[in-house]
Write a structure and sequence with these properties.
This protein is of the alpha+beta class. It contains three helices and four strands.
Length: 106
């Protein structure tokens, strides 16, 4: 493994109750070739204020993102994925595949 490619994952703890009430988006991410790429994309997403959790599935090229839609838009998520590869060696792109909004019941 290339040591210049190593990525330390950002640790972000979130309560299950927050995840259950979060909005979700499924992104198709291109450009990921190894687990370090997936970690880089995840770090870019979870570092955003309003993103609670992100699961990156390298084998399918999908990212499942749990977030607060009052703070984060799909466009911000897409830009965060692109920015995660902004090191001259990596290039990632994302598109929204599906969205789900949590609706509070009265």
């Amino acid at each position: 493994m290339d040591q210049n490619c190593h990525v330390e994952p950002i640790q972000k703890t979130v309560l299950d109750s927050i995840l259950k009430s979060a909005d979700t988006t499924l992104l198709a991410v291109s450009g990921m070739g190894c687990p370090n790429c997936a970690a880089r994309v995840r770090n870019g997403l979870v570092s955003l204020e309003g993103v609670h959790h992100a699961e990156i599935h390298l084998d399918t090229g999908l990212a499942e993102v749990y977030f607060d839609s009052g703070k984060v838009t799909p466009e911000i998520l897409i830009n965060a994925v692109a920015d995660a590869g902004n090191d001259g060696r990596h290039h990632y792109e994302a598109v929204v595949v599906a969205r789900s909004f949590h609706i509070e019941s009265a």
